[in-house]
Specification:
Shape: elongated
Number of helices: 15
CATH superfamily: MetI-like
Structural class: mainly alpha
Number of domains: 1
Helix content: over 70%
CATH topology: MetI-like fold
Number of strands: 0
Order of helices and strands: HHHHHHHHHHHHHHH
CATH class: Mainly Alpha
Strand content: under 5%
């Protein structure tokens, strides 16, 4: 029947227009867009350096990050008067190499940031879709839970939960992931409420498309752009949150090299061993900066309105 063929054509056209396919031409456009942005290239380079240092830590680190030698404690960096080439960035209060610990510390930060974003993103997207599609009391319940959680500052909520369940790398990841779903849930809900009223979704529904297919084929792909951008920025936020919790003694165990632990140790030696806190702090700042620069570029690339204004 003609009435059935017209909506079907509309569905296919809308789907092709709205869901990006990473064809070679699109990959080339992606590279050209990245190449045009100086900040994006700088961020990509810094982030690549941090990721490589995390993967190649056993090769790049000149010393064992846990090996302590008290007779060599508080050695200054190599370029100072009393510095030696054996310890390029000096040693800490126990004689451990600061450079090696900084390199290994990137592993903890990246693992926490990426894993916590995956958990919070998956949970937030799921709850946001359920709230938008089901509506009614279930929608109201999910949003009221989100409102209650938003009433507490994120870092205070994380500190309270860590103080109750205990610290540790796994607990920190789970806490950051579970408590960070709200932003994803609210964004996905608002986007899904708009998308499900679009003509191509109504046409697919009129053609008898099953609910799950409708959600995962027509609604979910069209709400993922803000989720991807939000996830990029949240990686940096979770890295800072992990360092903050560890700095307060509620995060990663002291036996694991972490930038937060190094900052906590260095606060008591700011005069005698300023390098203990400066270098891990600088590594954290550069990593967060690189992720934020990439997040800004990704937001502009995925938003057609911002791309057309270039």
């Amino acid at each position: 029947m003609p009435e059935a063929r017209v909506p079907e054509a509309r569905v296919s056209v809308e789907w092709a227009d709205r869901v990006p396919i990473m064809a070679p031409s699109r990959l080339g456009e992606l590279w050209r867009s990245l190449h045009r942005g100086v900040g994006a290239l700088l961020g990509a380079g810094l982030l690549l350096l941090m990721v490589l240092s995390a993967f190649l830590a056993p090769v790049l680190a000149p010393h064992d990050p846990l090996e302590a030698e008290v007779t060599k404690r508080l050695r200054p960096p190599v370029w100072t008067a009393k510095g030696t080439s054996e310890y390029l960035l000096g040693t800490d209060q126990l004689g451990r190499d600061v450079l090696s610990r900084t390199i290994y510390g990137s592993r903890v930060s990246l693992i926490v940031g990426i894993t916590a974003v995956v958990i919070s993103g998956a949970l937030g997207v799921l709850l946001g879709l359920i709230a938008a599609i089901q509506g009614g009391r279930l929608d109201a319940l999910i949003m009221r839970v989100a409102d209650v959680q938003l009433a507490f500052p994120f870092i205070l909520l994380a500190i309270a939960v860590v103080a109750v369940v205990g610290g540790g790398l796994l607990n920190v990841i789970l806490i950051l992931g579970v408590t960070g779903w709200v932003s994803y849930g609210r964004v996905v809900r608002s986007q899904a409420l708009s998308v499900k009223e679009k003509e191509y979704v109504e046409a697919a529904r009129a053609l008898g498309t099953r609910s799950l297919v409708l959600v995962f084929r027509h609604i979910l792909p069209n709400v993922m752009t803000p989720v991807i951008v939000l996830a990029t920025f949240n990686v940096a936020s979770y890295m800072v949150a992990e360092a903050s919790l560890t700095f307060l003694g509620l995060g990663v165990q002291p036996t694991i090299p972490s930038w937060g632990i190094m900052l906590a140790d260095g606060r008591e030696y700011m005069r005698a061993g300023w390098w203990m806190a400066i270098f891990p702090g600088l590594a954290l700042v550069l990593t967060v900066l690189s992720i934020n620069l990439l997040g800004d570029w990704l937001r502009e690339y995925l938003d057609p309105r911002l791309r057309h204004t270039e």
